[in-house]
Amino acid sequence: MATRKLFDLAKTIRSKNAGVDRITFDVIFSDRASYELVCRSGALSRDAVCRIFGIPASRITDHVQFEPALAIKFTIARTVPSGSPGDGDIFGSQQYGPLLDVQVTG
What we know:
The protein is α+β, with helices and mostly antiparallel strands. It has helices at 6-9, 32-41, 46-53, 97-100; strands at residues 3-5, 12-17, 22-28, 60-66, 71-77, 103-105. The chain has a 4-stranded antiparallel β-sheet, with no helix packed on it. Strands 1-6 form a two-stranded antiparallel sheet. It is elongated. The termini are close together.
C-alpha cells in the first residue's frame, strides 16, 4: 500500500475561528478519489484528530465528512477564548499545521 501526505492529496487545508471559543478545520479535496481515500484510511477520524492535536475527544465539538463538497470538517473547542491572555492565535488561522504531514495509507 502506498502512503502519501495529506498535503499532497488535499487542495485546501485551513483553520479559522468558529466564534470566540472554537476553531474549525476544513480539508477540501479536488477529486472524489482523494476524498474517499482519506475517509477510508481513517487518517482524519475523530480518534486520529485527537492524536494529531494531542487533545481529548471531549474537545471535538463537530466532525463531519461532507461528501457534496468533498470535504472533511471538524471543530475543536479552544482552551481559552480568542484574544484572551495566553491565546497564541487570535484568528485561529495558524492551527492547521499538524495536518500537513499526516500520513494517508491506502
